Amino acid sequence: MSKMWGGRFNKGTDALTDDFNSSISFDQRLYKQDIKGSIAHAKMLGKQGIISVSESELIVKTLDEILEDIEAGKIEFSIDMEDIHMNIESILTERIGETGKKLHTGRSRNDQVATDMRLYVKDISMELKDLIRALGLTLLDMASKHTKTIMPGYTHLQRAQPITFAHHLMAYVEMFRRDMKRLDQVYDMADTLPLGSGALATTTYPLDRYYVASELGFKNVSMNSLDGVSDRDFCIDFLEAVSVFMMHLSRFSEEIILWCSSEFNFITLDDAFSTGSSIMPQKKNPDIAELVRGKAGRTYGDLLGFLTTMKGIPLAYNKDMQEDKEPVFDAYDTAKICAITFEKMIGTMTVNGEVMRKSAAGGFSNATDAADWLVKHGVAFRDAHAIIGKLVFYALEKGKSLDELTLEEYNAVDPVFDESIYEAIDLQTCVNQRDIVGGPAESTVRRAIAVNRSLFQKA
Ligand code: ARG
Description:
- By secondary structure, the chain is mostly helical.
- It folds into three domains: 12-105, Fumarase C, Chain B, domain 1, CATH 1.10.275; 110-148 and 156-358, Up-down Bundle (Fumarase C, Chain A, domain 2); 367-425, Ribonucleotide Reductase Protein R1, domain 1.
- Helix content is 62%, strand content 5%.
- Bound molecules: arginine.
């Protein structure tokens, strides 16, 4: 088939060139954005008298029909037409002849593809944001059921201080809230119309770029044509936002994997979201969490791969930039399936609250509170730290917890101790006394849940 740009060539392209050069196998995903952009361009050409109003109307009507036909699965794209832009233009021309050939007036594929990608990234940023919102709302529901469920909080994966399961879950809610904000920022970065930049130096036709921007819902119009066609920062911003979100999901997955091991036994995953082993009959594996953790690496690859693609490209458009699509598509597909599946997996898991509480009770997680009791009774914190350290050493030898030591045993280390130490190191007290902003106390976490619920609902 002859190429749209075939005029200055003596012979056709090698089949290998067609295969290698074409992007239709993956950029057909942009058909909606491409048609939307073309419709706005055609309307503007008509309004500006660059083509006649009747030509503009025929183009718009036919593009609408092509859109319907694509959605009905009636269109087969052709590799000879390279990409989605030329495929749609050639279908248009097949249908309406000479008039179809006028659509590309004052436009280049360079500003067309940049426009399509921006429309697409705006769309997927909001779609992903909605999935993260759903995940956050599920966590908020779970958190409100577990504001009294004591568990150990960790540093260095060693039991540190008692918290609640709600408080732990709410840490992820904070991360996901930032992820949503990051996607808003991506939307903002993509919200500039490049169409009108032409191939690189705009055009001599009196285009009305502001009209096209408002038709397409862009907030801004690009101010430099070279940058207009060659800026892919918004793709990198999207890939970065996805990578950070996947890093959060991956950390959460790691915890799920630990928690459902027999060693922790803090949670039990639902059978519907676990898998078995082909050889070991007893196994129930957290494959979903492992895959999510694994796929985080894949999205980092998308980010780093495309950053590397962009680093050596002179202005303005170069074909290297066709490589923006697959990483963006892959990162989106990956984050989407991970967000959906992860939400279902945690939404159906069982929380073994009693095991969590016992673990918090067993690991001296109230030692800081014992030291704080001494401080409140006139001992300097450094001395208090040393005294409780001695008590912990003693208790470890006896195989007891701090609560199980008798008052005589306390007094043998320091006579200042009295009965009130037991109330002070009760796990519930330890948690509920930490009621400053950001703390695990039930009242504080309930407030954080309420604040986040309204932020998640309206963000
Ligand atoms: N398929 C191309 C891309 O994705 C479209 C732009 C092609 N422009 C060009 N001058 N070859 O980047």
